[in-house]
Amino acid sequence: xxxxxxxxxxxPDGYRPSDEExxxxxxxxxxxxxxxxxxxxxxxxxxxxxxxxxQQDLGALPxxxxxxxxxxxxxxxxxxxxxxxxxxxKIESALRxxxxxxYGYCDETGEPIALARLDARPVATLSLEAQERHERSERVHRxx
Length: 144
Description:
mainly alpha
């Protein structure tokens, strides 16, 4: 079994945070830090691929329908990349919160966010209950 050693913490492969541990102990923080960094690196790698494909010349397409289809595809890709850029910003913010010891705690209530929620959505800033309240409030105000 390969051991990952960082900041005097050994994280065996396959480590998963558990509710049996102290919340946001050093192992959990390192687990989420690595998860966030891997996610960010994957997004940045995809962005570089997109950039190189967008730099290809469209003028070579003689058929107007093909050119229009390619333009539509590029537009969709750019919108997706913009969403990814915003996600990278959220990931960077989560990494800062880990450094500041505020990661994993709800912005509204200050209560711990469930580990399962953090594992599924590592950039979460609200507990499930606070997120649901927020979404209900948005629906009410959106209808006004």
